[in-house]
Amino acid sequence: MNAAEPRRRWWPRSVRARAALAAAVTAAVILVGIGWWVHREVYRQSTQIAEEQARKHLLALVDQLNEGVVPVRRSAVPYEVVATGRRSAVARGGGMDNFDPGTRHVLPAPSALSAAPPDDNAAWSYTVRPIRIPLRRDYDPGNGFDVAGGTYPVLYADIWAGELSSDKAAALGVTADATLRAYVVVLPDTAEAITKTTDGLLLRAGLVSLVLIAAAAYFTVRIALRPVEAIRVLTASVTPNDPRERVTVPATGHEITALATTINSTLQRLDTAAAQQRRFVADAAHELRSPLTTLLASLEVALAYPERTDWPATATTAARQTRRLHALAEDLLLLARLDTRTPTADPETVDLTALASRLTEQYPLTERPLTLTCDSTAPAHAHGNPDEYERLLRNLIDNAARHAAHRIQITIRNQDAWVVLTVHDDGPGVPTEDAERIFERFVRLDDARSRDHGGTGLGLAIARDLAHRHRGTLTLTPRTLGACFRLCLPQAPAPAEE
């Protein structure tokens, strides 16, 4: 076989065929086990019935012998009556008469008794043991059951002729002191025939059952998978240009319903993510176009009227707009990296108290007279990237500096297993209905604010993404005056001193 050709597998690819095959194999194993148990039980019960028939026949033989009556040859079971002092059998039948009656008896003669055998029961007793029927030249089975050469369970009972009258002993052809033994052979032919017939019925019924079970499993799975096929067709029709298609949720309440609900939820999330991405691209293009338009207009005017242009002012405007473009590009690149959700490599233990104190001392407050203070009682350690923590805190301080009237307060506390950092300004605050919207990208609540002083609209979005990246949360805490942003991060143990 060519190595490039795919290997053929006996296991079918279709779910319907797999379910039918699995059901048939499982049913086959169960039916084989049940059939084996039925086979053994039928054989055991049939053997017990045969032994019971042999016991009744032995009882009839004993009664006949006690009455001095020689049993007839016609019998449903093989039997033989032998006696001490007698070479030939007293009586035989049921297949044992196929031996030559003029020859020696087939089954062994009993030992001589001087008294009647003990009788434990009120009626009579007998013995059961396996005996081999010998092969002899004088045996001709004819059309009957061939018993010669086989070993069979044999029931026998002894009778002492001393208890019989002389007439009865003479009628049986034995002496007055002889011991008679009546043998009845239990043949397995009836039990084997019944078991064989039962096995045949079980085999045919099992094959029919396997076919029916496989067919039922196949069509049941086929019917059950119809909603899945409908879901597949509808899902295949979802395109980037029209992501609003939804699958039909079955009203049955089974697993397919949960699948359809999950797929609809996934499609809704993808639709929402696609809409957010489109809106983000549109907003980013709009934000980039604004400084580019300003920069291009300034340069075109300067080039059109070079003798009237204030070139230092034009260069200042161009530099300011270029800085805006650079800041916006940096924010967009950072958001793109955060969207990949790449885990922070080799997290360090960062003291947020020291970081906040350093930013408080270095933050420039030249545009407006603002007071920036940091209140902390102890070091506050957290795992993460120091540069990302610095970007997060700087974004919060930048946002507070744009809206604060006079002061900005940074507070850091260790609470249970968390580090809680708040940045509170005394500005106009944020309406309650906008408490979550301000963390969206390119959102500015004050549309009239100058874009030169309003930022890019990405600072709080980046800050929240960085908080989530470090398994923390960033929320807006209600305050009567100003806005208060609350950052919660898992507390890390203090690093060991070297």
From TrEMBL:
Residue intervals passing through the bilayer: 20-38, 201-221
Coiled-coil features, chain-numbered ranges: none
- Stretch forming the signal peptide: none
User: Where is the HAMP domain positioned along the sequence?
Assistant: 222-275
* CDD domains (UniProt xref): HATPase (cd00075), HisKA (cd00082)
> Which UniProt key words apply to this protein?
Kinase, Membrane, Phosphoprotein, Transferase, Transmembrane, Transmembrane helix, Two-component regulatory system
State the EC number(s): 2.7.13.3
**Which compartments is it annotated to reside in?**
Cell membrane
What residues does the Histidine kinase domain cover?
A: 283-493
Give the main location. membrane
Query: What GO MF terms are annotated?
Result: phosphorelay sensor kinase activity
Which reactions are catalysed by this chain? ATP + protein L-histidine = ADP + protein N-phospho-L-histidine
The UniProt entry's GO CC annotations, sorted and at most eight, read: plasma membrane
Protein name according to UniProt:
histidine kinase
Question: In which organism is this protein found?
Answer: Streptomyces iranensis
